[in-house]
Structure formats: structure tokens, C-alpha cells
Design brief:
Shape of chain B: elongated
Order of helices and strands of chain A: HHEHEHEEEHEEEHEHHHEHHEHH
Oligomer: heterodimer
Distance between the termini of chain B: 142 Å
Largest sheet of chain A: 5 strands, parallel
Strand content of chain A: 15-25%
Helix content of chain A: 40-55%
Shape of chain A: globular
Number of strands of chain B: 0
Chain lengths: 311, 262
């Protein structure tokens, strides 16, 4: 476990060369990757969402692709399509893979794509495969989709339906950097042109091994009960929450807590892991009712209240 | 990981022993307190066993059923959550769980049994039980007891002024009772008064007074010493002297001398 912790610490250090601050965001993206899942990242423009993901892909020696979602984006633009290829006078259909054939796919501003395109991507996320015509193509493992969303400029967007949002393990919120961090960002990017060289710290084989390792981390029975209590509690507050989280949230919270424990170099899940991971796991899975919204409550406030109630 | 199993069994065994000892000590204290109270009020003292046994059974059962691992974790924060996790996943076998178990076994070496035993509290309890034991012996030795009937009678007398304030006329209290119209309670129950008219089925057992003539012996001779109590003492009586004048004394003296010569 110490070895893993050292690896992750050096990973944070390497990322720190490019991304200033945002340690929680980097940690949560790493948790998503360790859980072999997908994440939805929400934040204002210019907060290094894309940069952080791109940097992590570089450090893990993974194939990275970016899809800039627009309303005119077609599913075939994501999945790929058959093209006619002429070889020695013969014309053949050849499959031209789309950007989804990568290890880390960054779907920028996913809510700008049409529901049809969104579902093509979501199928790839869920099934880890793509069907074009009559042929199904398996995606290379590991495969992660990190989608970003912009909380402003909602005009002309197609917000993800709750059922589809549920497929993302975490909803990561990116906040503004602190004053000192912003000074550091200015110093780093306003004076130098050259990007620092990054070391590759993890490879595909390592990551797949870690996916296994995350599932092996033990959790105490009372903590399992705590997780289920937190999730079921979201369904018991009609005065606050209109729709609670599904059992998929319970599975996600166990997995995410285990991954966090591994990141912290622990061979057991702690209560702190659960309480920390409850926010990104639940925030896109609960819908506040009108009364809560009228009071100006956010989903994070509701989760905080639920956590405080669960023993 | 048989060794980890052993560690868990040892924790449970140690905690059960501590719980049984504490429950026994508390039950013993309860027994002593109730026993002394009952003996002071002239009740049946053996009843003191009932609450003591009940306490022992209930608290031992509750204590033994409780999960002791949390107590260990509370005392030793380095084991916090780890011990429970390993115990809950005792059947699971993978490198991560094995590592956790071996880490815990290393850390368990730092755990001291005495840290779960509140020596100060136990010492106070033992001291208290010793004091109560002495009190019990003393109360038995001096036959200390509090008679409820006597106390009640004294209280009634005191309230109605019979035995209490006797200043002035001796019949004042009785008169007051007679005039207060509560003679019924003072002179007793009418039912009991009628008992005198009823025939009592009583047998008076004759005492044995026969003299066995075969067993008559010579009277025993005893030497009695003259012993007087301290209050009795002998003192020389004062010489009687009549107040006779000196010349008259000389005259009487001369007369008797003359007689003697004759």
C-alpha cells in the first residue's frame, strides 16, 4: 500500500507542474479512473478542466481524445463510420474509428450535444463497446469518459436526463482557485511558453491491476450500513428531496470510498472516505424539490444534512 | 490467518473477564448495601441476594454481547476502524486483507490489557465493599436495628403529646385525646376489645417441678470471702468529748484519785 501511495503522491506532484491547485478535482478524477468508471465535471470556463484531464492522460500513458460537443455533432462523429477505401482498384468499406476509440475521452460540454449523440456516447460508457451498422466494436481497456458541463449559458443546451446522469460515477465540481493559486497560475502561464516535461508514472497494465485492487479493499460492516443508510435516507426526505438516489449510488459510494482509501495508502475504508465521497456520488443523483430550491439550498447542502443525520 | 482469529478470541476473552469481574464487584456492593439496610430495619436479609443476582446476570449478559473491538479502537486510535474491518472480513482472503491483518497483529503488541481496567475505580469499589463488610459485622455485633413498630408508637405518642410534653398535669395528654374525639384510634380496635368476651382456646403447659429424690446430694459448702464494695468503708469515729470546764475536770480527777487511794 505504501508503494501505491508513493506512486500517487508523485502523480500529484507531476500534475502540480501543469495544474495549479485543484487537488480535490485531481483526486476525484483519479478515483473515477481507479473505479473504472466515468465522471461528469462541472465548472465555469477557464478552470483547467480540460488541462487536468489531458495532463493525467499523458502521465498514465493513455490514448487521449477530445470531443467538442456541439448541437450539430452526429453520433457517427463520435463512434466512427465506414468509409470507402480504394486499394488496387478495388473499393471497400473500411471502418474509420471515431474519437471514442481511446482510453480517456474528454467530452467537452456534453450538454451541447443532441440527445441522440449523447446516448451514443453513453452507450459506449456503459457497455464499453460501439455498434456501427451491424458490427460491434469492443473499446480498448481501460476506457473512461470524462464529460464536462458548463453551469452557465444554458440556452440551446440539452441537459442530461437524470437516468443518463446516473451512469456517471461522480459529478465533480470545480471551483475557483485561491488568490495565491491564481498568482501562481499567472506566473506559470503568462511568462513561459514551454510546457514542462511530464514523466509517465502509470501504464495500462498498472491501471487494470489497480481496478482489481480497489475491489479487494475491505470495508467494515457498520460502514457498509452507513453507506446504504446515507443513500436510502435521500429517499426519505420528501420535504427536501423530490427524487432520491438509486442503489447504483450505494455501489458507487462503496467503490469510490475504496478507491479513495487506496489513494490515501490505506488498506481499509474509513468513515471519512464515505463522508467525503458522498457529495460527488450523490449530487447528480438527487433532485431537490421546489421548497428546498426556494430556500436557496444546493444539493450539497441537502447531502450535508443527510450525512449529519446518519449515525 | 489463524493467528488473527486467535487475537480476536483473546480480545473477547479478556473483555469478558473484565466485564464479569466488574459485574460481580458491583453486584457484591449492591448486596452489601441492601443487606445492611434490611438488617437495620429488621427485614429478611436474604432478599438482598435477589437484586444482586439480577444485576449480575443482566449486566454480564449485556456486557458480553457488546462488541469489544470498538472499545479497543477507542483506547488505541491507531487501530481505529482497522480492527473492525479486519474482523468483519475475517473470511476474506486477498493480499490487501492479509496485509491489513498482519499490520493489526503488529499493532496489537502495543495494546495493554491493564488499559481497559480502571484500577482507580476498582480500588474504590473494593475499599467501599470492605467498609460495608465492617459495617455489617458491627451492626450484627451491637445488634443495631430500627424497630418500625416502636418508632411508629413513639411517633404517635409524640404527635399526640402523651410521652412527649409532660409538663404540668399528668393527665393533660389523655384529657386532650378524650376531648379531641379520636379515642377510637388510641384505645385500639373495637374488634380486639371484644376478644375478652370470646372463649380462648389456650393450653397452659405445666412447668416441671418434680424433685428426683435419688438425685438429692449433700449441700455444697462454699467459702465466702468478705468482700465489700468500694462504696462501703470503715472510718474512725470521732472521740466523744463533753464540753466540761477544766476546773471541774480537775475536781473529778482529784475525786477519783482519792477513791483509788482509799
Amino acid at each position: 500500500m505504501k508503494m501505491y501511495k508513493e506512486t500517487f503522491d508523485s502523480l500529484y506532484k507531476e500534475i502540480g507542474k501543469i495544474v495549479v491547485g485543484q487537488k480535490d478535482v485531481v483526486e476525484q478524477i483519479m478515483i473515477t479512473i481507479l473505479c473504472d468508471a466515468n465522471a461528469l465535471i462541472e465548472g465555469y470556463p477557464g478552470l483547467a478542466k480540460t488541462l487536468a484531464i489531458k495532463t493525467m492522460a499523458q502521465m498514465m500513458d493513455l490514448k487521449f481524445s477530445r470531443i467538442q460537443n456541439t448541437p450539430d455533432l452526429m453520433p457517427s462523429d463520435i463512434t466512427g463510420t465506414y468509409i470507402i477505401e480504394e486499394v488496387s482498384g478495388k473499393r471497400n468499406f473500411k471502418f474509420q474509428p471515431g474519437p471514442v476509440f481511446a482510453n480517456i475521452v474528454l467530452a467537452d460540454e456534453i450538454n451541447r450535444a443532441t440527445p441522440k449523440t449523447q446516448s451514443a456516447l453513453l452507450e459506449a460508457m456503459q457497455e464499453k463497446q460501439v455498434t456501427v451498422g451491424n458490427t460491434t466494436f469492443k473499446l480498448d481497456r481501460p476506457f473512461f469518459v470524462l464529460a464536462t458541463q458548463n453551469p452557465i449559458e444554458q440556452e440551446g443546451t440539452y441537459p442530461l436526463p437524470e437516468a443518463q446522469a446516473d451512469r456517471f460515477l461522480l459529478k465533480i465540481k470545480i471551483g475557483y482557485p485561491t488568490y495565491d493559486e491564481e498568482i501562481e497560475i499567472v506566473n506559470k502561464y503568462a511568462f513561459e511558453l514551454k510546457d514542462p516535461k511530464l514523466n509517465v508514472l502509470l501504464d495500462k497494465a498498472h491501471l487494470i491491476q489497480m481496478h482489481e485492487l480497489v475491489r479487494q479493499i475491505p470495508i467494515a460492516n457498520d460502514l457498509k450500513h452507513r453507506i446504504v443508510n446515507i443513500v436510502t435516507e435521500t429517499r426519505k426526505h420528501p420535504n427536501l428531496i423530490e427524487y432520491g438516489a438509486s442503489p447504483r449510488a450505494s455501489i458507487g459510494l462503496v467503490l469510490a470510498s475504496k478507491a479513495r482509501a487506496l489513494l490515501k495508502g490505506r488498506n481499509y475504508v474509513s468513515k471519512e472516505d464515505i463522508d467525503t465521497m458522498a457529495y460527488p456520488i450523490l449530487r447528480h443523483r438527487i433532485i431537490l424539490n421546489f421548497e428546498a430550491e426556494r430556500k436557496g439550498m444546493s444539493t450539497d447542502d441537502a447531502i450535508k444534512e443527510i450525512i449529519s443525520k446518519v449515525k | 490467518m489463524k493467528n488473527f482469529n486467535k487475537v480476536l478470541k483473546e480480545i473477547n476473552f479478556t473483555f469478558n473477564n473484565i466485564i464479569l469481574f466488574n459485574s460481580f464487584l458491583n453486584a457484591f456492593l449492591i448486596f452489601l448495601v441492601i443487606y445492611i439496610s434490611l438488617s437495620l430495619f429488621n427485614f429478611y436479609q436474604t432478599y438482598a441476594l435477589v437484586p444482586a443476582i439480577l444485576y449480575f446476570i443482566i449486566f454480564s449478559y449485556k456486557g458480553i454481547r457488546k462488541k469489544h473491538l470498538r472499545d479497543v479502537e477507542k483506547k488505541y486510535s491507531l487501530l481505529n476502524e482497522r480492527l473492525r474491518t479486519a474482523a468483519d472480513n475475517i473470511k476474506m482472503e486477498n493480499p490487501v486483507v492479509d496485509e491489513l491483518k498482519s499490520d493489526i497483529m503488529m499493532d496489537m503488541k502495543k495494546v495493554e490489557v491493564t488499559s481497559f481496567f480502571n484500577q482507580k475505580k476498582v480500588s474504590y469499589k473494593i475499599l467501599l465493599s470492605i467498609i460495608l463488610c465492617f459495617l455489617m459485622i458491627l451492626s450484627a455485633q451491637f445488634d443495631l436495628s430500627f424497630d418500625f413498630k416502636d418508632a411508629a408508637n413513639t411517633a404517635v405518642d409524640f404527635i399526640y403529646g402523651i410521652g412527649g410534653n409532660n409538663s404540668g398535669d399528668g393527665n393533660q395528654g389523655l384529657e386532650r385525646i378524650a376531648s379531641s374525639g379520636i379515642s377510637e384510634s388510641v384505645f385500639g380496635d373495637a374488634q380486639i376489645a371484644q376478644m375478652g368476651e370470646e372463649m380462648l382456646d389456650m393450653v397452659i403447659k405445666p412447668a416441671g417441678y418434680e424433685i428426683n429424690l435419688d438425685n438429692v446430694q449433700e449441700p455444697e459448702r462454699r467459702e465466702f470471702e468478705e468482700l465489700f464494695p468500694d462504696e462501703v468503708f470503715a472510718a474512725t469515729a470521732d472521740v466523744y468529748e463533753e464540753k466540761i470546764k477544766e476546773d471541774h475536770q480537775e475536781l473529778v480527777k482529784a475525786y477519783f484519785l482519792k477513791i483509788a487511794k482509799d
